[in-house]
């Protein structure tokens, strides 16, 4: 199809999404199309596309492409060409590994879930100076153990087991196309990506003056209240969930880095090129740990302000209906805030509507209701600064009954 349109196609072969992004720079190619199911379950597939490197297409561009395809608006042109480029794996690994040289051999489990990261991550981490324990690194498209998604319980359990079994300082889990990185600490406990982001932001803001960060609306409220970030003069912008949104926003604000709770990390110069790359994130995490003077990751986590955050909950809702429901929920919360109403005894301090409704209460606790960017689902996250029980109550007594009034929203397939 691309060649019929007169496009010169540069075929990289089997690669990770960040390898394709890297190739745009290495080969000076303006556009990218990465065929991948990302972290979605077997049976899904798709294409991540973009131009204006390091950016990728968002809903507006994809909507335009949909119209071109469905309405037959494309034009055939001469000049199409296909070129196979070999050796990109080696060029990418050499580049990403050059970003850090550890002063000691940090023992790390590289957990890949039989996805494509298995033939990239272990070698790259070894060249950084890490001692690598390989877990599920053999490529197997049936994904026999679990779906390679570092937000899923099964993969997190495999990461925790690897840490305990092999005495690792941490486990790094990579999703199917290698643009996301999940973390389990030395005690076998997962550290959600948004809180890893806080640790990285603390580290980076101590090295770079007036650091600007971007995080998605699913991320912890610690960025806004953390005394270390405030003392370092760091600023954080909460923006729409989705790798294309956070990537674009970090570029617009000239931010040092962007962090998304799903595990996408975006490092801009001098740390990276602005695109999401699980191995660039891994390099930053290892370098942070290396500079910590022997302090363990679990200790660093305990130094953060305490919050109690839910997993991401995703009740089914048809694509054609989910946005209208979100609009209605946004209107309800905005009306409640305007009327000075409370949620579980706390006044509403702020309703961020950049992506659904992120409702922050006067004590800093918050709830989020939004539509999934890539599945027929709603997305719900809650965080309490008080207790785990309060976090559960925010879900059970506030968000769940509010959505349960709407029959278009399916039953929750998970509890907290």
Description:
With 416 residues, the protein is α/β, with parallel strands linked by helices. The protein has 13 helices and 19 strands. It has helices at residues 17-26, 59-70, 88-97, 121-128, 153-166, 193-205, 222-225, 227-231, 243-252, 278-291, 297-302, 319-338, 388-404, and strands at residues 8-11, 32-35, 47-50, 81-84, 107-111, 131-135, 170-174, 181-184, 190-191, 212-216, 235-239, 257-259, 265-267, 308-309, 342-343, 346-352, 357-361, 366-371, 378-384. The strands form five sheets. It has a six-stranded antiparallel β-sheet, covered by helices on one side. Helix 3 packs parallel to helix 4 (121-128). The longest helix is centred in the C-terminal third of the chain and has 20 residues, at 319-338. The protein is globular and about 65 Å long. The mean pLDDT is 94.
Features:
six-stranded antiparallel sheet; alpha/beta; 13 helices; five-stranded mixed sheet
- Oligomeric status of the shown chains? single chain
**Residue-averaged pLDDT:** 94
Name the shape in a single word. globular
Largest sheet: 6 strands, antiparallel
Q: Briefly note the structural class of the backbone.
A: alpha/beta
Percent helix among the residues?
25-40%
For the secondary structure, the number of strands is: 19
> How many helices does DSSP assign?
13
Determine Rg (CA atoms, Å).
Answer: 21 Å
Low-confidence stretches: none
Calculate the terminal CA-CA distance, rounded to whole Å.
Answer: 46 Å
Short description:
This protein has 416 residues and is of the alpha/beta class. 34% of the residues lie in helices and 20% in strands.
């Amino acid at each position: 199809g691309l060649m019929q349109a007169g496009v010169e196609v540069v075929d990289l072969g089997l690669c990770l999404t960040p390898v394709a992004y890297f190739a745009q720079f290495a080969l000076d190619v303006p556009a990218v199309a990465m065929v991948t199911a990302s972290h979605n379950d077997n049976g899904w597939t798709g294409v991540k596309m973009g131009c204006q490197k390091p950016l990728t297409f968002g809903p507006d561009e994809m909507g335009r492409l949909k119209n071109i395809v469905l309405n037959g608006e494309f034009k055939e042109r001469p000049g199409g060409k296909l070129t196979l480029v070999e050796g990109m794996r080696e060029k990418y690994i050499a580049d990403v590994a050059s970003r850090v040289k550890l002063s000691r051999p940090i023992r790390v489990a590289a957990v890949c879930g039989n996805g494509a990261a298995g033939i990239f991550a272990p070698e790259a981490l070894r060249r950084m100076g890490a001692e690598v324990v390989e877990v599920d690194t053999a490529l197997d498209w049936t994904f026999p153990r679990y779906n390679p998604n570092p937000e899923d319980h099964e993969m997190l359990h495999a990461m925790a087991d690897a840490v305990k079994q092999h005495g690792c300082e941490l486990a790094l889990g990579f999703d199917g196309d290698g643009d996301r990185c999940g973390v389990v600490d030395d005690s076998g406990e997962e550290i959600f990506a948004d809180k890893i982001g806080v640790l990285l932001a603390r580290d980076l803001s101590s090295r770079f003056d007036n650091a600007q960060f971007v995080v998605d609306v699913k991320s912890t409220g610690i960025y806004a209240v953390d005394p270390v970030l405030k003392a370092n003069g760091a600023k954080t912008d909460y923006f729409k969930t989705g790798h294309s949104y956070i990537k674009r926003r970090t570029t617009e604000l000239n931010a040092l880095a962007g962090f998304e709770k799903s595990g996408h990390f975006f490092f801009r110069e001098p740390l990276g090129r602005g695109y999401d790359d699980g191995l660039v994130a891994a390099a930053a995490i290892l370098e942070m740990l290396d500079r910590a003077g022997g302090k363990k990751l679990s200790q660093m986590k305990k130094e953060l302000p305490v919050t109690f955050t839910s997993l991401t909950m995703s009740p089914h809702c048809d694509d054609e209906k989910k946005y209208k429901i979100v609009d209605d929920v946004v209107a309800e919360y905005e009306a409640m805030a305007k009327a000075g109403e409370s949620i579980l005894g706390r006044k509403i301090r702020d309703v961020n509507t950049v992506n659904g409704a992120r409702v922050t209460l006067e004590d800093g606790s918050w709830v989020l209701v939004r539509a999934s960017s890539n599945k027929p689902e709603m997305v719900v996250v809650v965080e309490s600064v008080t207790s785990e029980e309060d976090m559960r109550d925010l879900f059970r007594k506030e968000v769940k009954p509010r959505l349960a009034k709407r029959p278009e929203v399916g039953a929750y397939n998970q509890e907290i």
